[in-house]
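Cross-posted from the bioinformatics board.
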Amino acid sequence: MTLHNTRQHSRTAFVHIALAGYTVIALFPILMVIVNSFKSRRAIFNDPLALPTPDSFSLTGYAKVLEESNFLLFFGNSLIVTLIPLALVLLFGAMAAWALSEYKFPGNRWMALFLAMGIMVPIRLGTVSILDIMVGLDLVNTRLALILVYTAQGLPLAIFILTEFVSQVPTELKEAARCDGISEYRLFFQIILPLIRPAVATVAVFTMVPMWNDLWFPLILAPGEATQTIQLGVQQFIGQYVTDWNSVLSALTLAVLPVLVLYVFFSQQLIRGLTSGAVK
Amino acid sequence: MRRTFPWHIVVFLAPAVLIYTVFSAYPLFDTLRLSFFTDSTSGERSFAGLTNFITLLGDDTWSDAFWNAMWNNTKFFIIHLLVQNPIGLALAALLSLKGLKGARTYRTLIFLPTLLSVVIIGFIWQLILSPLWGVSEGFLEFFGLGFLFDAWLGKESTALVTLALISVWQFIGIPMMLIYAAMLSIPDDLIEAAHVDGASPWRIFWSIRLPLIFPTLGLVTILTFVGNFNAFELIYAVKGALGGPNFATDILGTFFYRTFFGYQSQIGSATMGATVATMMFLVILFGVMAYFYFIQRRLTRYQL
């Protein structure tokens, strides 16, 4: 019995060492950048692993980033081109999912297939033509160009996931509502939409992360100073100040921090969404 | 009762279908169409049949660059497969052990890098691996392995592998979570029954858990395939659009960007760009079809 217990204990210890070891590997590079961004140039190089001390603490990098680049503007641009498409994807996606799963009409399956195509085929492959369209609409270097493209990019997966959820709404509920003489619009917006809120949260995460992190479309459709997103802004800033380690580390930290803060609050919800979506 | 045209269906579908069609589906088809056209120097577009493809695959300069990017991309993908799936599987297996304390904290922390932008991750690793800073050299020396250190990102022989490993490091959270979810959905009775029958934990893993998560491994593989064959940001952030040193890290995404947009002395061409995009489309289409016809079909989902 004791032998069994020791074996059990050493096995548990091994599991924790393995997982903790990998956690260190996953976090170490990010922590290094954040910690060193608060140190003087000399301390960054002399002792990279040390935490900032009153002696080595310095914010010169941050001062430079905020002075030399429009960081707040980039940040605002990123927020706009992420949150607006997110709202549009959720609303239009839920509407389309409802139509596809609730109403039988000719071509229903083909429409679903057509929309699902966008899940597997990356929208990037159509970039040549997308740029043509944006030039034609005079939308190059506008945030609207990114908003439209990101909405189109997010819709297929959103519709796919939401269709699954909408079809689980019990028929009796819908029939009862219809017997009360409620219109199809009110049925959807007042009864169905609130019911599928948990699924909407899952879809929100899948939709938001690729938009916020994208570099490709900002680079091609909106590279102008006034419309740069944070990814593009950081990329260009670092290209310019590559030898100024304080600034580079600070710029990276500023780009990472908002996501870290959000993650602290929403990680459980996000992971629950990811695992529940995967089981299906 | 009079049947009226169901306008509500149109109203529900129209916004999504319209935006998706105009900014995603149509551009894709138009890009495929453009690959059969060519622009004259005066800017007039004319039908050219397969000329662009013949240039891309037949002209020495073009085809060398194309196949180099294709081959690098394939290596990039294979490294992902070989490293990401076993590590993801191992992490998921450990996390799903019964009664493990702190599993939630581990998975939350390990998933974190996946959420950060590829550009930022690229720059972070560039700093960490920089011989100038010496962080990774110091790290290796701590384990007595300092002699192994090299400027991995700068060398033709190691740059691509290093970038692929950075990408694996970032996205390991996705296979880990998907496999973890699949493992959690295996009923306890099944494991219990095997246990009662005297199967060792090792045997249970190989004979019960692994076969049950094969569909998930297939899904992870095809997601990785599609992601890798239109990757761009990591290479662009770390090595620039030229995929240096000496095109050793040039993949289809960067090759597409240069062809379409032009870079330094090279002038961009929309139609040649469309041709490269069409080739990428064919590669991805081939991968997705292979997945559906071979893997998805053969892997019967166990009815639990």
